[in-house]
Amino acid sequence: MSGIFDDFRREFTKTDNTLVRIILINTVVFLALLLVKVIFTLGQSSEAYVWLIDMLRLPASPREFVVKPWTIITYFFTHEEIFHILFNMLFLYWFGRLVDEYLGSKRLIALYVLGGIAGGIAYMGIYNLLPYFHSQVASSQMLGASAAAFSVAVGASTLLPNYTFNLIFLGPIRIKYIAFFYIVLSLAQSIGPNAGGNLAHLGGAFTGYMFIKLLQNGTDLGKPLYALMEFWSRLFKKRPPMKVTYRQKEVHRTSTFYSAAPSPTSVEMPDQDEIDAILDKISKSGYESLTREEKQKLFKASQQK
């Protein structure tokens, strides 16, 4: 058992591993809740488990939300069903690795968190504004990372619309068509039994699209979140002892929340020869053959068009 915890801890502390960290957080929460559910059920205290889940779910009712505002964050790290978390994490992994490669770990976190928050706001807003849902407001609650995962998926599809995934039985499909299919599916199911979840998908999808479009025009919606992450990292980071010499003092610090890999804003603007060389490499070997720096240079060049 200790070996499993060691593996989790090792994966979580690796650098350039932000996507895996997000997946691990969701997985650990899922497994912890599953264990708690078994313990409470065997102890004939199932009502305690229901109370715990209610503290993590996002309610549609504004009155309930005021009492537990943290649920706007906790709901998109919480799952109860195995296939729910499995689909969400696979979806997140497939598209998240593209965002991580081209835009860096900070922007992957921003897409995930902002998409989850936007999905929650869309869910509460639509349930309270449209008469069709008024009768369900008091009893409706939501959990799951679908909205956050949709934000990452649509963000990747907006950034790299012609990138292809090889799907079983279907072959290579451009990711813009995959994202479009799931958006239409969510819209079609917005009056079904999981209406709240599907409405949240649309909020997350819209956020992912706008995040990339604004980023391409020079506006980064994630800047307030980056500042918060940096503050949080410094607040809980232990200061290592200073190494003192007769000339200077050296302080070495390591980031604990996200990778410090270069972002597109720190990459120098490539000249036309570099761009042509990158495009030639793509035509010969595909997007996957590009290095992280080449991908970020290509994105940097696209912002100037």
From TrEMBL:
Principal cellular location given in the protein's record: membrane
Lineage, top-rank taxon, reads Bacteria
GO MF assignments: serine-type endopeptidase activity
User: InterPro entries per the record?
Assistant: DUF6576, Peptidase_S54_rhomboid_dom, Rhomboid-like_sf, Rhomboid_protease_S54
Domain DUF6576: from-to ranges: 271-303
Where can this protein be found? Answer: Membrane
Transmembrane parts of this sequence: 19-40, 72-96, 108-130, 142-163, 175-192
Q: Which family does it belong to?
A: Belongs to the peptidase S54 family.
Q: Which PANTHER family match?
A: PRESENILIN-ASSOCIATED RHOMBOID-LIKE PROTEIN, MITOCHONDRIAL, RHOMBOID PROTEASE
Q: What is this protein called?
A: Rhomboid family intramembrane serine protease
Species of the source: Arundinibacter roseus
